[in-house]
Amino acid sequence: MNSKLDKNTIVGMILLAILFFVFFWYTNKQQQAAMEFQKHKEDSIAKLNAAKIKPIDTAAAKVDSLKRDSANKISAAGNFNTAGVGVEKLDTVENDVLKILFTNKGGKIKSVWLKKYHSYDSSLVKLGSNDDVLAYSINTSNASSAKSNELFFIYNGVTKNADGSQVVKYSLKDSSGQGVEHVYTIKPDNYLIDWNINMNNADKLLTNNTLNVQYKVTLLQHEKSASYEKLMSNVGFSEGDKFDYISNKKEHTFTKPIQWVSAVQQFFNEALIAKNNFTSGEIKWQRNTVDTAVELGTTDIILQSKLPAQNQLSIPFQLYFGPNDYHILKNAAPEMDGIVNLGRDMYSFVRPVNKYIIMPVFTFFSKFVTNFGWVILLLTVFIRLITSPLTYGSYLSSAKMKVLKPELDELKAKYGDDKQGYAMAQMKLTNEAGANPLKGCIPALVQLPIFVALYSFFNSNIALRGQAFLWSHDLSVYDSIAHLPFSIPGLGDHLSLFTLTAVAGQFLISIYNLSSTPTQDNPAMKYMPYIFPFMMLFVFNRLPAALTWYYTVSNILTLLIQFVMQKYFIDHAKVLAAIQEKRKNPKTKQKSKWQERYEQMMESQKKIQEMKNKTSNKK
User: Would you tell me how many other CB atoms lie within 10 Å of the CB of residue 132?
Assistant: First the structure.
């Protein structure tokens, strides 16, 4: 009866499901038909209404629009009416490192190519886009004003000087002789361009003797990974003679005099430098959130300069288009070397390490070794040598823990589930032997600030850009050996071989260290040799190959040093004999406050546990 009922119930549910499916299918089909009919009806009505409208002559409309636009431009140009409308003309000037494209529209630099650097697609690195703006406002008459980039200047040609520099001039004048002149000086083998704005009748051209400058820059992708390059992009500036920057913030208002502002990406930047400072201004910064976009971000900067109330003015600026090279930027403008991120914010403590240790040693080795991969290897060896005195004590403590392991295992078996009792016995044993398990953490603690320093150094070191080593084509980006057809969160869409070798090295170190320490009851400690390297895989996979190669070499050296120390420098028999001798002749050693508090805490926990056990036994 029940089986029959169950069978009927199942059949009924299947039939009901089929009925529901047919109902929803039929209803959906009816809705689609109704929607198509309604759309056909609306299209027919739209066609009838369109037929009633008198056709517009699009060609005539376009002509009218151009006429109105030209009239508006001529009106805005005021006394400079001939500069309101014109045809854009481009001129190119080059030095050893730059190819500069000038335009008469605004009398400005339109684009710059860096002749010594190539983008990810093998083309020359180009700074400047059609959307960029470098302009200021002038009064073109008593009732009108215009921005300089809206006016057509007269190109006055290029003059070559005896020192190899080239001078480019653009002029803008009205019938009375009032006007503006832009003078650009391009020096040989230099990324800085001098830009002077000369004004005649400046008191009439400027309102309240204030120059209002708009500086808008769109940063374009030049590296292999656009998403990583976006993270490295920011806006740098010198305010009150101190370097600062915004990266995650979208706005900044200046409260002190501004020396320069710069749109910064991972290895290049564009900067506007004011020789006599800007007095006020604000920044608006927007990083592009689309991973595949070639535009990294846009910065729109408004700056004001309060000028003397003079008829004749010469306002000196400089423009920088070039690499984020520490030594070049250091000589470009005060505090401009801060653009190179050698340690900032909470990691600013590593900046002196980079400036006075890592960078000089790296530069020294690169004078004798041409391949930067081997330079990094030598740098790693150097770092391990200077930190070896700090780590020797940890290896000796590890040796002591290793020879004590049988006794610790006996204690563990003796105390069983009494973890507090075992912990106190373990502390007593290690104190008698002069061993400190915490000393094993010293190598990792020493490595941490060095790793942070090298992370900043390798991310910002333009010398590594494009440098091949082993299978890596570029040490400044990850060394992809396999491209995945999908993206894994945190890992990305590729696998880095140097990351895999670094992870493998860390795994071996963890296994080696675990084998020399007492058995752990904590599952987290048991699985740490597997968890930590697995986490490293996700953290390191997108990092520059230079950093993961350093970590690979560092891990190999760690294993070698541990093996050599334990095999040849540390005699375990002597260590055990020394421990036994120390036990025979114990010396009273004053405990530290930390040890006293720890023992008190363990004793309190033991008493609490004993009380709980007594209570449970009574029940």
Answer: 19
